[in-house]
Design a protein that fits this description.
With about 90 residues, this protein is an alpha+beta fold. The chain is built from three helices and five strands; from the N terminus they run ααβββββα. Strands 1, 2, 3, 4 and 5 form a five-stranded antiparallel beta sheet that branches. Strand 2 and strand 3 form a beta hairpin.
């Protein structure tokens, strides 16, 4: 094992190595990623996708990414409240 590897492995338990996070980019948008301590993931704010970090290793395979849900997104038609609209038309 290389001498520096031990230090990197220790740091891996505490999120992501700062140097590594400065180098990595989103595999889809090629834009910078932001580390989210709450979810222990790398987030692409550009496209709203979160990539998990498992055992200190970022999983940047596109299929591993999860779409982020935003509170201010409009709800699709047919969602909650549509039954009220149907009743008012009767």
């Amino acid at each position: 094992m290389v001498r520096g590897s031990g230090k990197l492995l220790k740091e891996a338990g505490f999120g992501l190595n700062k140097t590594l996070s400065e180098i990595l980019v989103c595999p889809l948008s090629k834009q910078t990623l932001r580390f989210c301590e709450e979810t222990n993931s790398l987030v692409s704010d550009t496209i709203g996708v979160s990539f998990p970090i498992k055992n200190g290793i970022p999983c940047l395979v596109p299929k591993d990414g999860k779409l982020l849900e935003f509170e201010d997104e409009p709800k699709p038609e047919g969602a909650a409240g549509s039954s009220q609209n149907n009743e008012s038309h009767r």
